[in-house]
Amino acid sequence: MSYPAAVRLFEVGARDGLQNEKQEVPTAIKVELIERLVEAGVTAIETGSFVSPKWVPQMADTDKVMAEITRKSGVVYSVLTPNMTGYEMARASGATEIEVFSGASEAFSQKNINCTIDESLDRFAPVMEAAKQDGIPVRASVSCALGSPFKGEVILPAKVADVSKKLYDMGCYEVSIADTIGVGTPFKTREVLEAVANVIPLEVMGVHFHDTYGQALANLSAALQMGIARLDSSVAGLGGCPYAPGATGNVATEDVVYMLNGMGIETGIDLNKLVETAWFISGFLGRKPVSRVANAMKAKL
Ligand SMILES: CC(C)(COP(=O)([O-])OP(=O)([O-])OC[C@H]1O[C@@H](n2cnc3c(N)ncnc32)[C@H](O)[C@@H]1OP(=O)([O-])[O-])[C@@H](O)C(=O)NCCC(=O)NCCSC(=O)C[C@@](C)(O)CC(=O)[O-]
């Protein structure tokens, strides 16, 4: 066991968190959410996505969000981009990092980005080239690594490893292994992560767990035990993918920070401010945060 002494938390609440919301979230609320998260100590944040507004209307104002946020030096403002159209928009918006996304499920790839896994990688090739020329770092996400949302489709660890290696070889500085529908359990998680760690360096691997079956913290712990130090999480446990039936929220950032604080693993995040932010966005959405920690700490705020 080699737990990391510190981790990089990548906050996905403003993108993964809000992309699946039924109600419209005004730009001003997104901007306040991002600024509050940064104020709480978040240093890497996904602010939105430059994808087709017909496919994900909730993210159609990402350019406005990027224009309106007050940026803090040293903070990574990242956006999701599926192709060159998205890349051009990301660059124009001043994104300091972009994220490309593929997956280990052919069915999900078709539903989510309307192409095969191989075609998605082909689309990323010019994006990688342009980003390299522009000096913009690129992270990657590999969806459905622990299970497919579509009945009958089996995801093999070797497939996850294969896609991860291709993305790493293309120049992605981080490859985040995503349990899109939150079905993983710790031993299975470890098996998949080990398959990936056989083909790319452990240092570049990240994890992105949804908490659909309540396994996310346990899976996170399995990843930490391996020494993985790049973790995605979402304030208030917001999240879900419109093209992955059954996908619910990401592991809540408050729960992750509370656990890491207890383990003596450094995050740089002020838990009180984070919990206040969880209640801020949940209040706007008209519900309580799903995070256990946000609820437990409310009385102390
Ligand atoms: C990839 C496409 C665009 C293909 O969609 P398509 O229809 O096959 O693409 P197209 O090239 O034929 O373009 C169709 C229209 O979209 C426009 N277009 C084309 N590209 C862009 C762009 N980048 N930004 C804005 N507009 C764009 C393009 O200009 C055109 O406009 P029209 O002529 O009809 O007016 C579409 O399928 C799409 O946008 N999909 C995104 C779906 C998405 O965002 N899903 C959620 C994110 S993934 C996720 O949440 C998982 C993750 C990362 O969190 C990890 C995990 O948990 O698994």
Automatic annotation (TrEMBL):
It comes from the Bacteria. SUPFAM superfamilies: Aldolase. It catalyses: (3S)-3-hydroxy-3-methylglutaryl-CoA = acetoacetate + acetyl-CoA. Its EC number is 4.1.3.4. GO terms for molecular function: lyase activity. Pathway: Metabolic intermediate metabolism; (S)-3-hydroxy-3-methylglutaryl-CoA degradation; acetoacetate from (S)-3-hydroxy-3-methylglutaryl-CoA: step 1/1. It holds the Pfam family HMGL-like. It is an enzyme of class 4 (lyase). PROSITE patterns: HMG_COA_LYASE, PYR_CT. Keywords: Lyase, Metal-binding. Belongs to the HMG-CoA lyase family. This is hydroxymethylglutaryl-CoA lyase.
